[in-house]
């Protein structure tokens, strides 16, 4: 047999399979999805096997053999390899780029496996009977029960199938040594007392001077689960010394244990039972359950207002899916993947939940991934890339907050997790559930079109159909949506108020402080970095290599470029006019924090923005503190808007609603509406009623007015009118091509060539070049024009926008055009980067 291998060189010239022979020692081990080392242009390169074909199908007899097999069990399954092919076609990226995106980064090197004979298998011998006659088993026994897998593989070339089966069954345990896996760390762990009743009596009898130690002991009695000392100290905001005090009193135990790398281990998730569903939840659940039982691949859009109980529906649907021995993937925006969120899933499904997000170390990610691949996890909760979780039988893929733009990856492969999920679900006959209080227009139109609902009377052919809309318009327990007050900041100024707080927001904050309730303050700003400006002449510091302002870093007193990393000393006087009035403007949130301290002396504020959340675990730390009511105000950017659920939050203030409204992006209104609706949903989710104060300079804008009334449908009607008129998605689709090069003249001429080649190809394919507004197919090539950031890292940037509707093969046309412009080396003379369905147009 011959292996077809995609080598890991992401260039157009190498973006095709190369054939290699499979040496005898590897036969049976090399499969579709295996990672191998192959000789290529005088080197050994890493690659993936994407097909295995009989020798006869290949003409050349002078095949080179595969040099090495990098892991003994293939990291990818055939269905993932197929998915990668689709991603490569659809998003115009090299196949290797798509394949690499699917495996954890810890797996990039060579992994060395050791197999051990499972102890219980030795004892019971039940599982060993099946392999008792295998010569390799004797060999493992002779070697003391432990042997390198590579060695077994070499000595017993014909035994691949039975060894692999033994690993699958657990008769053999495979351990993979990846560098940081080997370092076993010991940690101090706190355990509950051995005799709880005795301890309880002793605690009750203790004097009030030991109040802190009592708190520790009570915590452990209540939670029961062992917890690392450091984690407990953090959870209770105490020193480890205080906790040791409780040990001295005999109320708890502290022991050294080997640290598990499960980042959520020892956290003591309290088990939760399914709630009895409300009428609205039940109706949705029934529909999902039926579709699950039918094993049909369908897409549902769960449009539920904030607090309608979407998560409980997810949980029960997952339970149904697990009963059928199928697995579930839950995607959550990175920023919303808080411990609170994880707890809801771990609380219901315990250790069968694997968690995947970018704040884990690469070793942790790898462990979670293996848990999935080895069948120890049935549910994964994770950010975007968890859509590639290597489950074998997927029944359900849930995408919470499906409208979030973070589901689109901004670097290659520039895939959208929602579209990948739909495709993957089709492979597995699984359901996709898209959940949101403010669905993206794309999803909403797709769902309404199929229902024949009047979102858009004559939905254009480009609008994807076939999603089913499941509405949940009411909050659980009939709790009202919070009242939203719009404050016109122009009136405030006219009335002589120059502060960033309106009188109403000021009073509302004061009231919360008096009542001991909490507030969330949102500063809606995208460019929340600090910059330098001269007050005398208006000079701003620019990067010498990029057309972008430099950012001021307080710690290092340096100016840095976010794009290329250029750094320089912050000037003392203006380099342009030598004035001393050069000022560093703090981040918006910093300034709000200062203002709060001035207006409300003693106020306790937690500020969450890019500056305060860079450290690992800081995001969680702030939220835990806020949840423990150690602060009155949680102040932040977008990150405070998502998914938080705190019972004492009764006020949400939005400092400036419209800073995102006028961005030159066709989704600006949609993003603003979504953000305001999400943040308003943080208030009054429990017994205490909530109130929202939104400050704006555009109180009559439909995005703001609709959010005031929690009125998604009138927002959508208005927004769809604009989109149709301007022919923007969902009435067409977009592909953004960015060209860059050091030489401006070459860049412009190549840009012109690309546009005209594309136009010629489209004409030859018989596709109309402009939109008649009748919903028929067309392809329109706009540009080239200078990019919004016209120079980056000393390279000029131009862009072409391809707008199209219907099945016009836009990606194919683009690929053809690029290859026509390419030289003999397979590359075009300027760099071309392709973004299909771009989410950020800026
Ligand atoms: P959403 O995700 O739709 O904003 P959540 O899932 O966070 O809403 O639910 C809001 C609140 O209602 C949560 O505190 C949740 O525990 C509670 N809840 C959900 N379903 C039920 C139910 N059937 N009975 C009682 N409480 C529920
Ligand atoms: Zn100046
Ligand atoms: Zn720069």
From TrEMBL:
Its EC number is 5.6.2.4. SMART domains: DEXDc (SM00487), HELICc (SM00490). CDD domains: DEXHc_priA, SF2_C_priA. PANTHER family: PRIMOSOMAL PROTEIN N (PTHR30580). Residues 569-721 form the Helicase C-terminal domain. This is Replication restart protein PriA. Belongs to the helicase family. PriA subfamily. It comes from the Bacteria. It comes from Paenibacillus glycinis. The keyword Zinc applies. Zn(2+) 1 binds at residues 534, 537, 574, 577. It is an enzyme of class 5 (isomerase). Signal peptide: none annotated. Residues 291-457 form the Helicase ATP-binding domain.
């Amino acid at each position: 047999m011959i292996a077809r291998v995609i080598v890991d060189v992401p260039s157009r010239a190498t973006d095709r399979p190369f054939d290699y022979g499979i040496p005898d020692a590897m036969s049976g081990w090399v499969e579709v999805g295996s990672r191998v080392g192959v000789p290529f242009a005088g080197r050994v390169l890493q690659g993936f096997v994407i097909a295995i074909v009989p020798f006869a199908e290949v003409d050349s007899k002078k095949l080179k053999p595969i040099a090495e097999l990098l892991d003994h069990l293939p990291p990818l399954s055939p269905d993932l390899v197929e998915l990668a092919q689709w991603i490569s076609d659809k998003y115009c990226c090299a196949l290797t780029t798509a394949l690499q995106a699917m495996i954890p980064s810890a797996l990039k090197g060579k992994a060395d496996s050791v197999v051990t004979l499972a102890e219980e298998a030795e004892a019971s011998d039940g599982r060993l009977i099946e392999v008792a006659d295998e010569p390799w088993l004797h060999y493992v026994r002779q070697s003391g029960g432990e042997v390198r897998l590579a060695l077994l593989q070499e000595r017993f070339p014909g035994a691949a199938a039975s060894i692999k089966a033994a690993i699958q069954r657990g008769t053999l345990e495979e351990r993979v040594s990846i560098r940081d896996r080997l370092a076993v760390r010991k940690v101090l762990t706190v355990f509950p007392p051995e005799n709880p009743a005795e301890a309880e009596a002793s605690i009750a009898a203790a004097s009030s001077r030991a109040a802190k130690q009592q708190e520790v002991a009570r915590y452990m009695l209540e939670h029961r689960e062992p917890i690392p000392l450091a984690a407990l100290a953090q959870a209770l905001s105490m020193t480890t010394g205080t906790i040791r005090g409780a040990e001295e009193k005999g109320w708890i135990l502290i022991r050294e244990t080997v640290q598990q790398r499960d980042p959520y281990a020892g956290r003591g998730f309290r088990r939760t039972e399914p709630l009895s569903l409300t009428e609205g939840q039940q109706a949705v659940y029934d529909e999902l359950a039926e579709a699950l039982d039918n094993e049909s691949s369908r897409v549902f859009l769960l449009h539920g207002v904030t607090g309608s109980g979407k998560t409980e529906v997810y949980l029960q649907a997952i339970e149904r899916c697990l009963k059928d021995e199928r697995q579930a993937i839950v995607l959550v925006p990175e920023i919303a993947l808080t411990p609170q969120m994880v707890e809801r899933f771990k609380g219901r499904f315990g250790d069968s939940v694997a968690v995947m997000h970018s704040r884990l170390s690469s070793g942790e990610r790898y462990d979670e991934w293996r848990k999935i691949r080895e069948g120890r996890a049935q549910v994964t909760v994770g950010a975007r890339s968890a859509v590639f979780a290597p489950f074998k039988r997927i029944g359900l893929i849930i995408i919470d907050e499906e409208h979030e733009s973070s589901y689109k990856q901004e670097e290659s492969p520039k895939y959208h997790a929602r579209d990948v999920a739909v495709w993957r679900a089709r492979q597995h006959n699984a359901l996709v559930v898209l959940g949101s209080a403010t669905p993206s227009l794309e999803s909403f139109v797709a769902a309404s079109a199929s229902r024949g609902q009047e979102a858009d009377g004559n939905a254009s052919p480009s609008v994807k159909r076939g999603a089913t809309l499941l509405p949940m318009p009411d909050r659980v327990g009939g709790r009202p949506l919070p009242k939203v007050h719009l404050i016109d900041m122009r009136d405030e100024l006219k009335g002589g108020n120059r502060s960033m707080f309106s009188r109403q927001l000021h009073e509302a904050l004061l009231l919360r402080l008096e009542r001991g309730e909490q507030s969330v303050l949102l500063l809606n700003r995208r460019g929340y970095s600090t910059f330098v400006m001269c007050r005398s002449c208006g000079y701003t510091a620019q990067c010498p290599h990029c057309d972008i302002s430099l950012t001021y870093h307080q710690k290092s007193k340096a100016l840095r470029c976010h794009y290329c990393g250029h750094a320089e000393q912050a000037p003392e006087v203006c380099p342009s006019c030598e004035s001393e009035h050069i000022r560093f403007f703090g981040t918006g949130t910093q300034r709000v924090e200062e203002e709060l301290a001035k207006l409300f002396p003693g106020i306790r504020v937690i500020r969450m923005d890019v500056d305060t959340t860079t450290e690992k675990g800081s995001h969680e730390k702030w939220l835990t503190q806020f949840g423990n009511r150690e602060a009155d105000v949680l102040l932040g950017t977008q990150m405070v808007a998502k998914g938080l659920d705190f019972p004492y939050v009764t006020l949400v203030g939005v400092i400036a609603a419209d800073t995102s409204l006028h961005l030159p992006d066709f989704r600006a209104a949609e993003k603003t509406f979504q953000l305001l609706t999400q943040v308003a949903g943080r208030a009054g989710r429990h017994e205490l009623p909530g109130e929202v104060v939104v400050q704006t300079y555009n109180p009559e804008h439909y995005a703001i007015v609709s959010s005031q009334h929690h009125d998604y449908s009138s927002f959508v009607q208005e927004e769809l009118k604009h989109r149709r008129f301007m022919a923007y998605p969902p009435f067409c689709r977009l592909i953004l091509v960015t060209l860059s090069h050091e030489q401006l003249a070459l860049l412009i001429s190549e840009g012109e060539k690309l546009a005209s080649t594309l136009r010629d190809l489209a004409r030859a394919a018989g596709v109309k070049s402009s939109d008649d507004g009748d919903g028929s197919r067309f392809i329109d090539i706009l540009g080239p024009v200078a990019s919004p950031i016209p120079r980056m890292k000393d390279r000029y940037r131009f862009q072409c926008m391809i707008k199209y509707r219907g099945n016009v093969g836009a990606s194919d046309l683009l690929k053809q055009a690029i290859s026509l412009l390419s030289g003999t080396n397979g590359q075009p003379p300027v760099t071309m980067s392709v973004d299909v369905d771009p989410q950020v147009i800026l």
